[in-house]
Amino acid sequence: MFSIKKKDGFKDERHLTLPIKNFPTYLTHPLVNHTYVTELGFYPSAKYHYRERFDGVSENILIYCLDGRGMIEIENESPVTLERGHIFCIPANAPHRYYSDELHPWSILWFHFNTPLSQHFPIIERTEILITTPEKSNLLQSHFIDLFTIAEKDYTLGNMICISKLMLTILTEVYLLEDGVSYDKQNRYLTTCIRYMNEHIHQDLTLGELAYELNISQSYLSSIFKKYTQKSPIDFLITLKIEQACKYMKMTDLKVYEIATKVGYQDPYYFSRIFKKHMGKSPKEYKKKLEKKFV
Q1: Which of 21, 119, 141, 211 is deepest in the core (most CB within 10 A)?
Q2: What number of other Cβ atoms are within 10 A of residue 220's Cβ?
Q3: What's the pTM value of the predicted model, to 2 decimals?
Q4: What distance in Å separates the CA atoms of residue 35 and residue 168, rounded to the nearest whole number?
Q5: For 92-125, what is each residue's pLDDT tens digit?
Q6: How far apart are CA 171 and CA 164, in angstroms?
């Protein structure tokens, strides 16, 4: 299978090396903070592409497969097949090899990088990412183009800062920007529900009424709120009501019972209990503190 092995030298390839580690003042600059790219490349239709590193390398390696197929093998791990739209990051110092499929050679974008923020991305977990929408794919590829454009310029501090920030943007989009249909739909439900809550803040809404408005089940609505806000829909609604009550206290001369009615509580005593639970002070105590503040 590996009778022919090529590290590089593919038609129309691009491969750049950045000597930022030779600029210690760049590395320690607050806007870089040891977040940098050392190499980046684009290998189109890279037939016979093969790399093997028995001791790994000191940087993480991100590989984005644009087309074709290839394989990544990390010591003591199951092999990972990369196909169109797949992204995988090989952790620093992990012994590995990767190679292109002979019949359907991959086209890949890649870069070597280091950052103290690695812990905030699932790199150590060796998570394979699949880009499912053209919008996210186009966004990532445009940022890779920007990365190449700047990397080909002079090695100035400003350029190195831009490369550092672009690389972090790419990592953030790869691992944190959701592009699946189900996620988009869930987020639309969440956004619509929160807008409905704000528009009807004066009403005593129930979970059933909120779910009915969205035409989904109560349990599904609850799971969406738990996932995105770590709160139940009603707890989130209460938070909105208390925030609005605080605004009324700061900006109007309304009495406590009038504010309670405006945020959907007909019983001012119940409103006072809820307010104190969230703010640590009763409405009257909160108003007195505001009055002293502006005396």
Answers
A1: 211
A2: 12
A3: 0.64
A4: 8
A5: 999 999 999 999 999 999 999 999 998 888 888 8
A6: 11
Stretch 3-16: mean pLDDT, rounded?
A: 84
* Token output for 152: 């080909």
Q: Can you give the pLDDT at residue 156?
A: 96
Our measurement of the distance from residue 40's CA atom to the centroid of its chain's CA atoms, rounded to an integer in Å, reads 22
Q: Which distant-in-sequence residues (6+ apart) come within 8 Å of 181 by Cβ?
A: 132
Are 113 and 37 within 8 A, CB to CB? yes
The radius of gyration computed from the CA coordinates of the chain, to the nearest angstrom, equals 27
In 9-85, where do the E strands start and end?
Answer: 14-17, 36-43, 50-53, 60-67, 69-74, 80-83
Q: Write phi, then psi, for 123 (nearest 5 degrees).
A: -80, -50
CB 53 within 8 A of CB 60: no
Residue 9 is predicted with a pLDDT of 85
CB 90 within 8 A of CB 52: no
Torsion of CA 258, 259, 261, 264, to 10 degrees: 180
Per-residue pLDDT band for 184 (boundaries 50, 70, 90) equals low
The predicted structure's pLDDT at residue 180: 55
CB atoms near residue 158 (< 10 Å)? 11
CB atoms within 10 A of CB 208: 10
**Structure-block tokens of residue 109:** 């974008």
Tokens linked to 8: 């590089």
104 CB-near residues (< 8 Å, 6+ apart)? 68, 69
* Overall residue count recorded for the chain in this entry: 295
For 181, the token pair is 């249909």
Neighbouring residues of 141: CB distance < 8 A, sequence distance ≥ 6: 66, 109
Structure tokens at 212: 């009915």
Mean pLDDT, rounded, for 182-200: 85
